[in-house]
TrEMBL record:
Family matches, as InterPro entries: Cyt_P450, Cyt_P450_CS, Cyt_P450_E_grp-I, Cyt_P450_sf, Cytochrome_P450_fam2
Signal peptide: 1-25
Family indicated by similarity: Belongs to the cytochrome P450 family.
Organism of this sequence: Microtus ochrogaster
Any Pfam family: p450
Alphabetical UniProt keywords: Endoplasmic reticulum, Heme, Iron, Membrane, Metal-binding, Microsome, Monooxygenase, Oxidoreductase, Signal
Name this protein carries in UniProt: unspecific monooxygenase
Main location: endoplasmic reticulum
Cofactor list: heme
Length: 490
């Protein structure tokens, strides 16, 4: 028997074995399209608009189905009932972090966002407690956001009403708020170090949202061997680590355990308290990645939503006019907006909710995983199986939100014009893995946007009807297209 024939037989056996394993595994899992060996269903998924592909699959296989994005199965939850049953009713069982190889290669299971088990529980609990101690949801953090809103308005005034791209300036404001919590200080908008850091954050989100990154995450073997934009992600990580490490060193040298100044100080104090615990999760690696997670999540998502808000307000000047009328009535032109105002501003509240619903920032959430073998809707899902939750399917549910593809603040208003809550409002996800900084993000969106609209009229250099509000990428984060805006002082 020649070597070529032998090799052909071995490959054929491996191919048949793969088919047999896949077939045996699929019989217990939720239904789904037949996968090809090795590549699975990847050719049937539009990597530029995964949400649309999931919606089409749900029409055939129902609200719970299985896709093979590569060799391993992924269970997809589509629609409110499926998400609630999994993340609320069975929250602990669905609280794992799913497969995300690029992030795993960088973080190695540290921090908050991409950790699991005890690490995740400890880091999440500590971060929530520390954020609350530093004022999340309280007046102290509100003062910081109001101060930054005033700085933002002053920076926007420098445009003198000329057309400008607001991307960088709108990223600076939420970044400075999270800086004050993690590092204790804010940066001047012209600071070059600040510019470099912001550029890295923006580039990371762009790379993570690209179709190439979806391929890397589903075929992790290529990460180490092929060139591509994921290499830039690793370079950016090195830059970020050096930056945070220098900040941590500065804090260690000036630490006063009786007077913690920020998140890093609190973590260092906890490290000292647990230095004799061999199983402690309070390590330098977890400090770095937890701080970095808070920084990235607290900056990019809020700034992207703010940017999208302004684009939608340019597109719908009638909505802008109604918000400004409510600002005039409740706040006036000379008092700084505060969170107490929100309950007296139902239309503005509805607009903010509708922006987040319409924008659909994280269409498919971050991947979850089941923490144990589980029977779900009469299907068997093995421990460790990745679970994708389509937030789009909830935020764009046409029964809860008539004409969901249309931007309409009326989705969150009752017949009397009062604000109407909805269980389907899940831009921050839901359950055990919901966003740690939800309270801070909601505060920032309200205070930044009302302060801008209190100070400026918004004008588009082109006809509002010609503005495109279609997301540039719909793989990881929905990014607004580039646009120009004029801030006309009132």
């Amino acid at each position: 028997m020649t070597l070529g024939v032998l090799l052909g037989l071995v490959l054929s056996c491996l191919f048949l074995l793969s088919l047999w394993r896949q077939s045996s595994e699929r019989r217990k899992l939720p239904p789904g399209p037949t996968p090809l060996p090795i590549i699975g269903n990847i050719l049937q998924v539009d990597l530029k608009d995964i949400s649309k592909s999931l919606k089409n699959f749900s029409k055939v296989y129902g609200s719970v189905f299985t896709l093979y994005l590569g060799r391993k199965p992924t269970v997809v939850l589509h629609g409110y009932k499926a998400l609630k049953e999994a993340f609320i009713d069975l929250g602990d069982e669905f609280a794992g972090r799913g497969n995300f190889p690029v992030a795993e290669k960088i973080g190695k299971g540290h921090g908050i966002v991409f950790s699991n088990g005890r690490t995740w529980k400890e880091m999440r609990r500590f971060s929530l407690m520390t954020l609350r101690n530093f004022g999340m949801g309280k007046r102290s953090i509100e003062d910081r956001v109001q101060e930054e809103a005033r700085c933002l308005v002053e920076e926007l005034r420098k445009s003198n009403g000329s057309p400008c791209d607001p991307t960088f300036i709108l990223a600076c404001a939420p970044c400075n708020v999270i800086c004050s919590i993690i590092f204790q200080n804010r940066f001047d908008y012209k600071d070059q170090e600040f510019h470099n850091f912001m550029n890295v954050l923006n580039e990371n989100i762009e790379i993570l949202s690209s179709p190439w990154m979806q391929i890397c995450n589903n075929f992790p073997a290529i990460i180490d061997y092929l060139p591509g934009r994921h290499r830039q992600l690793f370079k950016n990580f090195t830059f970020t680590k050096h930056y945070f490490s220098s900040k941590i060193t500065e804090h260690q040298e000036s630490l006063d355990i009786n007077n913690p100044r920020d998140f890093i100080d609190c973590f260092l104090i906890k490290m000292e308290q647990e230095k004799n615990n061999p199983k402690t999760e309070f390590t330098h690696e977890n400090l770095f990645f937890s701080a970095a997670d808070l920084f990235a999540a607290g900056t990019e998502t809020t700034s992207t939503t703010l940017r999208y808000s302004l684009l939608l307000l340019l597109k719908h000047p009638d909505v802008t006019a109604k918000v400004q009328k409510e600002i005039d009535h409740v706040i006036g032109r000379h008092r700084t907006p505060c969170m107490e105002d929100r309950s007296h501003m139902p239309y503005t509240d509805a607009v903010l909710h509708e922006v987040q619903r319409f924008v659909d920032l994280l269409p498919n959430n971050l991947p979850h995983a089941v923490t144990c073998d589980i029977k779900f809707r009469n299907y068997f899902i093995p421990k460790g199986t990745t679970v994708i939750a389509s937030l789009s399917s909830v935020l764009h549910d046409d029964k809860e939100f008539p004409n969901p593809e249309r931007f309409d603040p009326g989705h969150f208003l009752d017949e009397n014009g009062k604000f109407k809550k909805s269980d389907y409002f899940v831009p921050f996800s839901t359950g055990k893995r919901n966003c740690v900084g939800e309270g801070l993000a909601r505060m920032e969106l309200f205070l930044f946007l009302t302060t801008i609209l209190q100070s400026f009229n918004l004008r588009s250099p082109i006809d509002p009807n010609d503005l495109d509000v279609t997301p540039v990428n719909n793989g990881f984060v929905s990014l607004p297209p580039e646009f120009q805006i004029c801030f006309i002082p009132i």
